[in-house]
Automatic annotation (TrEMBL):
GO CC terms, sorted: mitochondrial ribonuclease P complex
Top-rank taxon: Eukaryota
Main localization (coarse): mitochondrion
Keyword Metal-binding included in the entry's annotation: yes
Alphabetical list of Gene3D superfamilies matching this protein: 3.40.50.11980, Tetratricopeptide repeat domain
Protein name: Mitochondrial ribonuclease P catalytic subunit
Pfam families the record matches: PRORP
The enzyme's E.C. designation: 3.1.26.5
Known catalytic reactions: Endonucleolytic cleavage of RNA, removing 5'-extranucleotides from tRNA precursor
Compartments it resides in: Mitochondrion
CDD domains: PIN_PRORP
Length: 539
């Protein structure tokens, strides 16, 4: 074979010179890595010389990986032959249908006119809602469409309600999902599995995720629920801190002989970053993937990597939380200077108010939020924040002062009326300070409860009697405080990211993670470093 190759090289030297060209190699300057190039209109012999391969190729051919088992080979081969045969041109989808592009809600007369001029009036509503579902339209346009149908026919057909439900679930319009659920449960004796699946997905994304469990049981009486149904509720349970329910449902998937979805595995890995107690269960997932020859996709692989390299959680343990709560109540809420900020009567009224309410998910310092950013009126900003959190299905407490209830240019009556409809509200005297009330309500509601404020609480932290408790307070604060990042009227509310790990020196058996200050940096005492030194022991 060598003689054939040298014979070929001598006869076709002008074509073969480009075959071997030196390419720099970083490993050693004395070694040269050779790259094989394809010469147009040349046919190569199939041979091997050392570790260099020459692959038979014809004009316009593709250089494929050597192994037919390498990922992507089949797809590239298929695409290549489609291009060669011209099939790709014939397989392009033809979609000459004109989609409805409606940006604002329409009146009954406008909808009627649009329907009469459409090509298929009998399917007009379904066509419009399908277009909105595909394009991600405005929820208010969809509502005006349903209002038109109800006025024209006296009711809304099942198919249209189902499409509207899919639209609401896809757009995370949680309150509308709840409304459709109430309507369909009252109007129809039974729903199809598609509707039940949508309700499971919609409820699982909110604080009402537990209501998806009986829906899952209803499906189970007819068919085996899909892994997507299970996965949606597992995500809801895991994201709301109920790991017992999440892992119980995961066990049901395996018991029924179903293959879990990769996004379910990803949820379990991500939500276990702060709970080392699930390590054995997570390792069993990896063994399951190995035994069934399942390869994780890139996003799952990154979650597995993050779990493997995880840092200590920012969340307090139950013991730490109880300790902090007791000390805050003693040193801050019941401390000697608290009545410089309120009165005993007002504080007792507030405590009674909180005890009569369900546990809150988030407590808002209304005045602090309203005055944080200059754009928009204070009442408009407060309403926007409350509306964003309400959309997430959260139980909200807004703390304010009584002057906020007096209509003015800053405090619009309509805005404040909506705030009180969307959230529980408590308004203190104008001379009182909000912080003791905010801390009491947040800590009383449980370790899951967060608070919204830009106040750094330095004075209150200083009131705590020992350094260990002050460190706990600072850790709790960084894991529970939501800070408004920016506000533009009419746009989505954004909060600064809350870190899931604690910024302290951390170690396991083989590695150290050390946060450090950059040279020339200017870090205040209430700030934490943003750079880490990561050391790994190699035996």
């Amino acid at each position: 074979m060598g003689s054939l190759l040298f014979s070929f090289l001598s006869r076709h030297l002008r074509f073969t010179l480009p075959l071997l060209i030196p390419r720099p190699c970083l490993l050693s300057p004395s070694k040269v890595d050779y790259k094989l190039l394809k010469v147009p209109n040349t046919c190569y012999l199939s041979t091997k010389e050392g570790n260099t391969s020459f692959v038979r190729a014809k004009k316009d051919s593709k250089m494929y990986p050597r192994s037919v088992f390498a990922a992507g080979t089949a797809k590239r081969t298929s695409d290549f032959f489609k291009r060669k045969s011209g099939d790709e041109l014939h397989q392009q989808p033809k979609n000459n249908k004109k989609a409805f592009n409606i940006d604002t809600p329409l009146t009954r007369a406008e909808w009627k006119n649009l329907k009469e001029n459409s090509k298929s009036p009998h399917r007009f509503e379904i066509t419009v809602i399908n277009d909105m579902l595909n394009a991600g339209g405005d929820i208010n346009v969809a509502k005006s469409l349903l209002a038109f149908v109800a006025l024209e026919t006296g009711s809304i057909p099942y198919e249209l309600l189902l499409k509207y439900l899919a639209f609401c679930v896809k757009g995370s319009h949680h309150s509308e999902v709840f409304d459709v659920y109430d309507i369909m449960k009252s109007r129809f004796k039974a729903l199809d599995t598609g509707a039940y699946s949508l309700f499971i997905k919609g409820f699982s994304r909110t604080q009402r995720w537990k209501e998806a469990l009986p829906i899952l049981d209803t499906i189970s009486k007819v068919i085996v629920p899909s892994t997507r149904n299970y996965g949606d509720i597992i995500a809801g349970a895991a994201h709301h801190g109920d790991s017992v329910t999440a892992w119980t449902l995961y066990g049901e998937i395996l018991d029924k002989g179903l293959t879990p979805r990769q996004d379910t595995w990803q949820t379990l890995f991500e939500c276990s970053l702060s709970n080392p107690g699930n390590d054995e269960r997570l390792q069993s997932i990896l063994l399951y993937m190995r035994d069934n020859q399942i390869y994780p996709d890139e996003s799952l692989a990154k979650s597995i990597k993050a779990w493997f390299e995880r840092l200590e959680s920012i969340q307090l343990s139950e013991e730490e939380y109880v300790q902090l709560k007791d000390m805050v109540m003693k040193d801050i809420i019941e401390g000697q200077d608290v009545f410089n900020k309120t009165t005993p009567e007002e504080l007792e009224i507030f405590k009674t108010f909180v005890k009569r309410k369900p546990a809150f998910d988030v407590v808002i310092d209304g005045l602090n939020v309203a005055n944080t950013i200059t754009k928009g009126s204070p009442s408009e900003k407060l309403l926007a924040v409350v509306s964003e959190l309400e959309q997430q299905g959260l139980s909200i407490l807004v703390l304010g002062r009584k002057h906020m209830l007096h209509p003015s240019q800053r405090w619009d009556r309509y805005h404040m009326s909506l705030v009180q409809k969307k959230a529980h509200c408590f308004f203190t005297e104008n001379i009182s300070e909000d912080d003791p009330f905010l801390l009491y309500a947040t800590l009383h509601s449980g370790n899951h409860c967060k608070f919204v404020s830009r106040d750094l609480m330095r004075d209150h932290k200083a009131c705590l009697s020992n350094s260990a408790t002050r460190h706990l307070f600072f850790k709790w604060q960084r894991g529970h405080q939501l800070v408004l990042n920016r506000f533009s009227p009419g746009k989505k509310i954004c909060f600064q990211k809350v870190q899931s790990y604690d910024t302290i020196i951390q170690t396991d058996r083989t590695s150290w993670h050390i946060p450090y200050d950059e040279d020339g940096g200017d870090r205040s005492s209430y700030e934490v470093p943003q750079k880490w030194l990561c050391l790994t022991r190699v035996d």
